[in-house]
Amino acid sequence: MKTTILGYPRIGAQRELKKACEAYWKKTITKKELLKTAKTLKKQNWLIQKELGIDLIPSNDFSLYDQVLDTCLSVGCIPQRYKSIEQTNDLELYFAMARGLQNDDIDVTAMEMTKWFDTNYHYIVPEFEKNQSFAYYSNKITEEFKEALALGIKTKPVLIGPVTFLLLGKEKESGFHRIDLLNRLLPVYLEIIEDLIDLGVEYIQFDEPCLALNLSDKERAAITTTYNAIHNKFPKLKIFLANYFDCYGDNLETALKLPIDTLHLDLVRCHLQLDDILNSKYFNNHIKLSLGLIDGRNIWKNNFEDSLNVVQKALKKLPPENLWISASCSLLHTPYDLELEKNLNSEIKQWLAFSKQKLEEISTIRNLCLTENEPYLSLYEENKLANLNRKTSKLIHNSKVKERVSNLKDTDSHRTHSFDIRQAKQKEALNFPLFPTTTIGSFPQTKTVRSWRLKHRKGELSNENYEILIAKEIEDSIRFQENIGLDVLVHGEFERNDMVEYFGEKLDGFAFSEFGWVQSYGSRCVKPPILFGDVSRNTPMTVYWSEYAQSLTQKPLKGMLTGPVTILQWSFVRNDQPRETTCNQIALAIRDEVIELEKHGLKIIQIDEPAIREGLPLRKEEWPNYLNWAVKAFRISASGVKDETQIHTHMCYSEFNDIIASIADMDADVITIETSRSEMELLDAFVNFKYPNEIGPGVYDIHSPRVPTLEEIEKLLSKAKQVLPKEHIWVNPDCGLKTRDWPETKRALENIVNAAKKLRQQEIELV
Ligand SMILES: Nc1nc2c(c(=O)[nH]1)N[C@@H](CNc1ccc(C(=O)N[C@@H](CCC(=O)N[C@@H](CCC(=O)N[C@@H](CCC(=O)O)C(=O)O)C(=O)O)C(=O)O)cc1)CN2
Ligand code: MET
Ligand SMILES: [Zn+2]
């Protein structure tokens, strides 16, 4: 019985890769220095896995930006607009595809970015043309294998499987389906594999998480074609096929019939599938199983007793040499090392395992299965105790909270009156012009603002002085917003480290780490708070700064909250009760905050739910149940206020078509959404559905430093005006401005306000 993992985090325990990439982009370090940092990180990752007892260690799980982008370069899937960069500098090309590039000679936009399945990790979306050709282009995969080999480690290179690669991409023109490109793509994979085999590779891991989705017959056939072709050409190669994040489901028969060496199972997300497989008539016991027992998506300690039971079950049908002990998915989604945490409550800390601790758990489980397992029995006992302690801890349970959730009534998730009635009252109370303008909440989180927070945390800046600085920043932003003439102002979120972590820090039932960083996209990281117990709000969270900001202006100020589903989705959440229950607890806490903001004079409150789409289960059968409780949780948070109080919500990065009815069902008075990059295409869902409430389609792509011109914004707005009732249209950016700098923010927002003014003028001239 051996151990393996599917992938390891790569950002560095101290976020070394983030810092190096950002320095390289600013040209304060050279390409050579960046690559040196990368090399050191890879080496550290391999050596720690070796030291902690991982037998089959992955390579090519490292990436300077994103593994799907890496795959694009491996197979030469480079959109036309980058061809002029291609010749000059490989890193420049790579980062241009990731982030766009603007200089005297070149002006190219970035490739699209979207969520990796149901995670908060974003990948770069491959672009395909009808006549797409592929060619073996970058040699990253072989180079990394050689790098590890030089350290004495023969790795298992990780490749995103060709079918998943195609399905994750997008057709950039009509008249074909991307899956039809398989016959062109496969030969390139075969070339790469041949190179790897020449270098001595024994195992290759093919990640095909598309197997967790509802696949068509054609897509399933593509899986069969692919792995038959690879096996026929390289019969000695050991194919390690990995699906994760959900069951094989309908795709199980296809998977079991493949000529592969190992099938990997995510037993955390789908623990019943082991029985399905062992009992399947297609199962043959020559196949090896990789048991994904350790949770790669969450930070709770494994329960060894349960895991050993699973292994025993497998051992009834398979010899031990046909089993791998592993984690459910790549450890990319969990932080580096729990040992770095010096300030975590020690009771809570003993319940947790970060990536490094998960490596230890994997080898301990294997060691406990050995006949000579005595040296490890104390670890087993320790694990049992920690799990028992977590079950019974006083820190977790709050009977008042449980009672409040179980006493929720239907009326708690309904506003007093329907939208029409509310809208009329709000129009009277707020008296906005046509096409009111607003922003999504955050203003630039500059290095300076972040450095105040760091100093404050370290005790180098007193509470009082920190607050003086934040207050001044808020005041400046209010004056700026008034000057350019925005209709609904925001305070700017300067006091927040992150829109979820900030609330985690204020709510009971959450703990937070110091170094628990997880990559979100490229160099951007998040530090998800740890939701370990019943959630309650014992103190106002945003009232102080919102009330202060409102006191500075006659214009209405929009209070800014993160919604229950997003807090749930972007935290490390307890796994001892249904997510629905936890979400309702958060919803009640947010509801109390909404009511309190109203009490303190705020007439408009935004409850952000950017993660509601991402939280959708991977399989459609499970959508209705999820949407039902998620929408209800939002409504619970929003329904405690009077008709006159205007509730906004905001979503970004979303394909809205599938779930538009549920979005409407959230019944927010106003929704602001991301649409600018798709030229308002995303608005179609709202139009086709006749979305009943007010809506602000984004007119400024905040993911790019580019400033949209007045004309561009006008064009987008006139598109919106053609399809939406003009009384329903708001004018705003796609998302918050925290990742932007002030100069471009100011120019862009001025253009936005002026575009709205021009639109109003046109309306007056029309009558
Ligand atoms: N949780 C979450 N998920 C999300 C989003 C989001 O906003 N939050 N937005 C979408 C896109 N994803 C994003 C993820 C991260 C960031 C982001 O800006 N992250 C920051 C960190 C934000 C943060 O927590 N900041 C802290 C700590 C900042 C820090 O690194 N401080 C330095 C010191 C200051 C400095 O020199 O910069 C340090 O500790 O060493 C703070 O402001 O207090 C980063 O990686 O740079 C943006 C978007 C989807 N998912
Ligand atoms: C990822 S959605 C962000 C919403 C938040 N209010 C902001 O403006 O940053
Ligand atoms: Zn957003």
Strand line-up in the sheet with most strands: 1-14-13-12-11-10-8-2
User: Largest sheet, if any?
Assistant: 8 strands, parallel
Binned, the helix content reads 40-55%
Outline type: globular
Q: Which CATH architecture of the largest domain?
A: Alpha-Beta Barrel
The domain count comes to 2
The number of strands is 24
Q: What is the CATH C level class of the largest domain, in words?
A: Alpha Beta
Please give a structural write-up.
The chain has 767 residues and is α/β, with parallel strands linked by helices. It has 2 domains: 2-392, TIM Barrel, CATH 3.20.20.210; 421-766, TIM Barrel. It has 28 helices and 24 strands. Strands 1-14-13-12-11-10-8-2 form an 8-stranded parallel β-sheet. Strands 19-21-22-23-24 form a 5-stranded parallel β-sheet. Helix 1 (16-25) packs antiparallel against helix 2. Methionine (MET) is lined by residues 440-442, 499, 560, 608, 610, 650, 652, 735-736, 738. Its cofactor is Zn(2+). The active site is at 703 (proton donor). Keywords: Amino-acid biosynthesis, Metal-binding, Methionine biosynthesis, Methyltransferase, Repeat, Transferase, Zinc. 5-methyltetrahydropteroyltri-L-glutamate binds at residues 15-18, 115, 120, 524-525, 570, 614.
Nutshell version of this structure?
This protein is α/β, with parallel strands linked by helices. Strand 21, helix 24 (623-638) and strand 22 (646-651) form a beta-alpha-beta unit. Ligand 39S binds next to helix 18, strand 16 and strand 17.
